[in-house]
């Protein structure tokens, strides 16, 4: 099973040697030519064969010389004993091949598992809420993708540059939440610009170091340096309330190796671009107008480009990343560069060496199963979006904050498993409970002000205003809870047990709050009304803001859109 004398070999090399030996047995697994575009399914010389491999001349194997070998020779049947001998021999060879491949395959599988780096899912001190199952009992999947700018190896230092950052805590410069719907019919992606300012939660690193919750706004990409990717997960949950099931983190070198293994991804610019200004800022990306297949370091440059796209901000970079991801998915769906075992092994090795994942996603089998869930979603039902945001002022004028209303709406849609592509949801709408409510004058309701957002403090007097509306509707036992002003993205009526569901729904109906926002919660001891950020203004509950529609400010991009082209900033053309 070893390599040549005097040279050791890895399980991956030994398995690849089996592929090479298979060539000699008639399995043509010739490497594809690397070109500017995807594979065309043709082998050397332009002749088509299965999987893009060339067939022998004439489209079939040459007849072997010798007895009974040539077509057109004697059609006499072979004796039955000879047939049995051939069958026994074939079965024996097949069994040996299966056993040999099984042994090598197991070693290779363990080798790939050993490549994967694992860390804790969350380092926060808040337990994430459970998923809500749909009518069929299915639950969604949420995966946080993190791109690290760590300069912790020679490869990453060469690719990342910026010598002054060598050895510094890594930054989570790319953050994308992938939401696969419960019924696997659609996939939504939310990017958070790395310049987003928010409050950081308390995080406890695996080595025991404690990073206290921040009292001032902090740039979101700093979460990775507060103990690892588990703090980035905790930060997302703190902001969005979206349960995160897994994370996958990749660094500079990982992006390059993955892009090479895929064989190139088509991207488009509307003008020649050179992302390198006189001041030295830029990724170094240089492309001609139109579509180019980028791979290796050029793919990394595309994903890192800020100076040269649109307004030279992180918002343009997020759009470019969406274009790349959509194109990559389309390439993988076509099977580009993945038509033979050697190519598949290259991709498997690149992926496992590139990734850091949570401990519940720590084997090739689990990664494969996750990929199978992704494959169930057609590209036309993939929607890329960016967290709606507004620019800060004063010392944070170059940073962004979640846009009140729009950001909460986007997060709510993901929490409630509502497709971002605007197509009708098949989910059953909540029905009114059959249990009658008590007389409204006997229903006790505590109203609290949850209108605060990361960018804005609580709107003054909102709990009292809504409490007055309830009293006017006959809810005489309504009180204001002055203590808890924790922000809530959306107004909700909470109740602790089934016997109070009818009372809670009566409160919602009196205010015009949708029944979908009436929820059972173990965090309350009675009926509690949290006035959310979607109701910061006086007046009736703004039902129009609760429509199942992706905000325009999210810049949604459909996965089937292969005509998308990045707008080049005029200062970075050539």
Your description of this structure?
The chain has 574 residues and is α/β, with parallel strands linked by helices. Helices cover 29% and strands 16% of the residues. The protein contains twelve helices and 23 strands. The protein has helices at 11-24, 80-115, 154-160, 229-240, 252-262, 296-304, 314-334, 341-354, 364-375, 406-415, 462-472, 501-511, and strands at 117-119, 141-148, 172-180, 187-191, 197-198, 203-204, 210-211, 218-219, 246-250, 265-269, 273-274, 286-287, 290-294, 355-358, 382-386, 389-391, 400-402, 445-449, 478-480, 492-495, 518-520, 527-531, 557-558. The strands form seven sheets. An eight-stranded mixed sheet has the order 1-14-9-2-3-4-15-23, sandwiched between helices. It has a five-stranded mixed sheet with strand order 19-18-22-20-21, covered by helices on one side. Helix 2 (80-115) packs parallel to helix 8 (341-354). It starts with 10 loop residues before the first helix and ends in a 16-residue tail after the last strand.
Summarize this structure as a short list of keywords or feature phrases.
574 residues, alpha/beta, eight-stranded mixed beta sheet, five-stranded mixed beta sheet, 23 strands, disordered N terminus
